[in-house]
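Myosin ID heavy chain: C-alpha cells wanted.
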Amino acid sequence: MSDSNKNQALDNIKERFALEVLDNYVKKALEKIWRNHKSALKKEYSKKNISLEEKLRNVLPRMLRYQWEDAVRFWNSKKGETQAEVQRLRDQMAQMQVSTVEQIAQLKVEVASREAEMFQQPQNPPS
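Answer:
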C-alpha cells in the first residue's frame, strides 16, 4: 500500500473517528489488513484453472478494474510467483519453529515429571 493511499485512508478514518492511538499504529494496521485482503483474494481467485484473459475479465464487484488487472498480472508474473514461493517457505519455517518450541516444552515437562518421580521414590538405605 503506497504512502499516499495510507495517508488518505488515515485521513478518512480520522474524519469519522476520534483516535486515541498514534498515526503509525493505524498505518501499520491498515498495511496488515490490506496484505491479508490481497492474500485472501489470491487464494480464492488466482488458483482457478482458467486463462489469464478470463481472470482479467472476471473483475470482482468491489474492486476497480485496474486494481484487479494489476493484481492478477502480478500473481501471474515471475516476480509474483517467486514472492509466493518465498512466502510459502517462510510460513513453513515458522511452522517448524512453532513445532520445535512445542517439542521442547513437552520435553521439559517430561524431564520435570521424571525428576519429581526420582525424588518421591523412597531411598533404600545402604546395607
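The helical segments are 3-16, 23-46, 52-57, 65-75, 78-120. DSSP finds five helices and no strands in the chain.

Cheers.
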